[in-house]
Structures are given as structure tokens and as C-alpha cells.
Design goal:
4 helices; alpha+beta; 3-stranded antiparallel beta sheet; 3 strands
Length: about 100
């Protein structure tokens, strides 16, 4: 399932597994977000905001931007009060983001 999408994403990370930078190009960013959602978050689990922040901070210091991109891109859903997050099985486009092309 992650054979081709993870390939172009690999060069975004340094040898220590940290993200070098958040891509500016939408297609590259979408591929990264799909990879992060799949590797950092289990599908049928609810996460508190602190847990989401901790997971994202393992790859980049700007975890709040990554969290925002994941929600806008439909990779994570958030409760109205912003306390709980869940990984989406099939990302939607609630914020008008273009879905990653497989």
C-alpha cells in the first residue's frame, strides 16, 4: 500500500528521521501528510491533542503547522472543542485540499 507514495517522501527526512522542512508544493505536502497520518496514528484510535503534538514533534518542531495541515487535508478529524483527534480512513477534502494522487 505504501510502495510508491513513501518513495518521494523519504528524501524529505534527514538521516535521523527528522523532517528537513514542510514542503511548500501542495502535491509534495499531501504525500508527506498521508505518510505521517499512516505511520504516526492508528486508524481506530482517538488521540488527545497532546498526543498528536507529541507524535508530530518527533519529526518536526512545528508540530502545530503539521497538525493543522493534517486536519485541513482531511487526514485527521477533530472534535468541535479541539480536544480529540482521529485518523481518517480515506482522507477527504474539507479544506479544499487536493487529495494525493496514488
Amino acid at each position: 500500500m505504501t510502495s510508491h507514495p513513501s518513495r518521494p517522501v523519504a528524501d524529505l527526512f534527514s538521516a535521523d528521521g527528522r523532517l528537513k522542512a514542510i514542503p511548500r508544493k501542495p502535491a509534495r505536502r499531501e504525500a508527506l501528510l498521508a505518510h505521517l497520518a499512516e505511520t504516526l496514528f492508528e486508524a481506530d484510535r482517538t488521540y488527545r491533542e497532546r498526543e498528536v503534538n507529541e507524535a508530530l514533534s518527533t519529526v518536526h518542531e512545528d508540530f502545530s503547522a503539521l497538525r493543522r495541515y493534517l486536519v485541513i487535508g482531511g487526514f485527521l478529524t477533530r472534535t468541535k472543542d479541539g480536544a480529540d483527534y482521529r485518523r481518517q480512513q480515506q482522507p477527504g477534502s474539507p479544506g479544499g485540499a487536493i487529495p494525493a494522487v496514488a
